[in-house]
Design a protein that fits this description.
The chain is 49% helix and 8% strand. By secondary structure, the protein is an alpha/beta fold. Residues 1-39 are annotated as: Disordered.
Length: 203
C-alpha cells in the first residue's frame, strides 16, 4: 500500500507541469497576436546583426558590419501591395532588367521564411515583374543541383527564396551576388506559429 501512494504522487506532479507549460505557450502567442505589425526600420536589422555576431567578433569586426542608412530604401509602410512597393523603390526596373545579362546572378533577391510564402510573393509581384524571369530559391521539391544548373544556363532577374537555400547556393558558388542591386527581407510576415522570419533561431 505505501508504494502505491508513493507512485501516485509523482504522476500528479507530471500532469501539473504539463498543464503549466501549455498555458505559457498560449500566453506567448496571445502577446504576438496583440502586437500589431510595424514597418521594419534599418535599426532592426543592425541590432539583429550586432546581437548575432556580438559574442564571437571583435569590436572592429562589428563596426565593419554596420551599414550606413544610405544602404537602406524606405520600408513598406504596410499600405502598399508587394508590386506597388517594388515599383516605388525601383522605378527604373525596366532599364535594369534589360541591362542584366549575367548568368549565375539576379538583380533582385527576395528572402522570406518558407517555400509557401515564396510562392505567394512570386504571384503577388506579377504587376511589377513584367516579362522578366523569376527563379524559386527554396528547398521544397527542388534540388540544389537543379537550381545551380538553371542559374548557370539562363539569365534570371529576380530570385525569391528562403535563407537556408540562398546561403547554400552562395557557398557552393551557384549564386553570385555581385550584380544584385536590391535585397528585400520579408520582415513582418508571420507563420502559423506567429513567428516572423527573424524570430526563427536558425535564420
Amino acid at each position: 500500500q505505501p508504494t502505491e501512494c508513493f507512485l501516485s504522487q509523482p504522476e500528479e506532479k507530471q500532469e501539473s507541469t504539463v498543464k503549466t507549460k501549455r498555458r505559457k505557450k498560449k500566453k506567448i502567442s496571445d502577446i504576438l497576436e496583440k502586437s500589431a505589425p510595424k514597418p521594419g526600420v534599418p535599426a532592426d536589422l543592425q541590432n539583429l546583426l550586432s546581437q548575432h555576431f556580438g559574442e564571437n567578433r571583435s569590436v572592429i569586426e562589428i563596426e565593419e558590419l554596420k551599414l550606413s542608412d544610405s544602404c537602406f530604401l524606405p520600408a513598406n509602410d504596410l499600405t502598399h501591395s508587394f508590386s506597388s512597393y517594388l515599383k516605388e523603390i525601383c522605378p527604373k526596373w525596366a532599364k535594369l532588367r534589360k541591362n542584366h545579362k549575367e548568368k549565375k546572378s539576379v538583380v533582385m533577391l527576395v528572402i522570406c521564411s518558407s517555400a509557401l510564402r515564396s510562392l505567394e510573393l512570386i504571384k503577388s509581384m506579377t504587376a511589377f515583374k513584367g516579362d522578366c524571369r523569376v527563379l524559386k530559391l527554396f528547398a521544397k521539391h527542388i534540388k540544389i543541383k537543379e537550381q545551380m544548373n538553371m542559374l548557370e544556363k539562363g539569365v534570371f532577374h529576380i530570385g525569391v527564396g528562403t535563407p537556408g537555400r540562398v546561403k547554400a547556393l552562395v557557398e557552393q558558388d551557384g549564386l553570385c551576388l555581385n550584380s544584385t542591386k536590391y535585397m528585400i527581407l520579408d520582415w513582418n510576415w508571420r507563420d502559423q506559429k506567429l513567428r516572423r522570419m527573424m524570430d526563427i533561431p536558425e535564420v
